[in-house]
Amino acid sequence: MKNSIFFLLIALLSFLSFSCRTRSEAVHVIFDTDMGPDYDDVGAMAVLHALADSGEANILATVSSNLYANSVPCIEVINHYFGRSELPVGAPLQGINTKDSRFGSDYWADHLPARYPHTTKQTGDAPDAVQVYRKILSTQPDTSVHIISVGFLTNLAALLDSKPDAYSDLDGEALIHKKVKRLISMAGAFPQGKEFNVYMDSAASVTVFNRWPTPVTLSGFEIGNEIITGKRLAASGISDSPVKDAFSLCLKYDINGRPSWDQTAVLVGVRGCRDYFGTVRGRISVDSSGSNIWQDDPAGPHEYLVWKMPKEEITSTTEDLMMHQPAKK
Fold first, then answer.
1. pTM
2. What are the start-end ranges of the H helices in the chain?
3. 86, 107, 200, 230: least CB-packed within 10 angstroms?
4. Pairing mode, strands 180-186 and 277-286
């Protein structure tokens, strides 16, 4: 009984510290993206680099959960643009390979690697994402890393199943428990639904939400769907920017702007909920088809975001960060 109360208090303190964290604390982040089927990932990376430039985030790695050939090259293009070409990248050994075919010859993920510098020729040439995770986590202080996932949960499920290796004598679940403070994921629809990041690799989603050993914060489809960005960025005078290029190309089709699903996870993953969002505590469950349901539980291991600040204010904050220019410029 005493042990149960102790662990409940630890979990509660973790949730409270996340919501109340001050801006002076740089958050150590591993960023996991399915870069390719949607371009909100580009906006999310811009937000992350802006927060790193302001001293709020320390980016440890940027890995792909998508096997699409230009996923890792696009990640590297954005890292290079923001002056962080040295960041480790990785990709799954097996999983989902997908892109958005609706853009035809204007496809942004073909355009960016063709125009901007990057190192990796194609995603298949990148290191194994699980090995990147294990190497980095093994060197970090205990309970210090935020994993921000804005794509499939492929890499995280594989990390959970990973075995001891040269980097750590801990298996994946124990390594996560020791080193990760929180998982923040753009995943699910609440209180129930069927969302892309979850159902595209439903087996991985089931594994992660059943077994993940640290607190989990979920930004559901319904949150980012109301935060429409991109038009101000595309109309700006910013030049030679892969971020602007991606949105300018795509807004020929999405003329009213694009929902900011992935940007919300980055904003909360670094800054915490603050005045932006409230949360509901409980547990997400995912079935084999990738549909999710929710059960409220004040002591549950998961939480999802609900509105607090007017969406117009969050939209403005998000696009301001997306328009951030690299320090080198």
1. 0.93
2. 2-20, 40-53, 71-81, 108-115, 129-139, 154-160, 172-179, 196-199, 202-211, 221-224, 231-234, 242-250, 261-271, 311-322
3. 86
4. unpaired
CA 47/CA 107 separation, integer angstroms: 22
**Helix, strand, coil: what percent of the chain each, to 5?**
45, 20, 35
User: CB of 32 within 8 A of CB of 266?
Assistant: no
CA distance 176 to 321: 30
Does residue 297 contact residue 270 with C-beta atoms inside 8 Å?
Answer: no
Q: How far apart are CA 314 and CA 129, in angstroms?
A: 32
Fill in the DSSP letter of residue 96. B
Structure-token pair, residue 185:
């994921």
* Beta bridge mates, 21: none
- Report the candidate in 119, 52, 126, 107 with the shortest Cα–Cα distance to residue 80: 119
Distance CA 96, CA 56 (A): 32
Q: In DSSP terms, which residues pair with 59 in a beta bridge? A: 29
Instruction: Produce one character per residue of 149-166: b if its CB has 16 or more CB atoms within 10 Å, e if not.
Output: bbbbbbbbbbbbebeebe
| CA neighbor of 115 nearest in space, from 250, 236, 235, 244 | 244
Q: Find, among 21, 313, 299, 34, the residue nearest to 146 by Cα.
A: 21
Question: Residue 125 in 3-state DSSP?
Answer: helix
Largest CA distance in the chain: 62
Q: Read out DSSP for 64-95? A: ESB--TTHHHHHHHHHHHTT-TTS-EEB-SSS
The angle, 0 to 180 degrees and rounded to 10, between the axes of the packed helices 311-322 and 261-271 is: 90
Which residues pair with residue 229 across a beta bridge? 258
Amino acid at 204: A
Question: How many residues are listed for the chain in this entry?
Answer: 329
CB 137 within 8 A of CB 176: yes
Cis peptide bond N-terminal to 191, omega within 30: yes
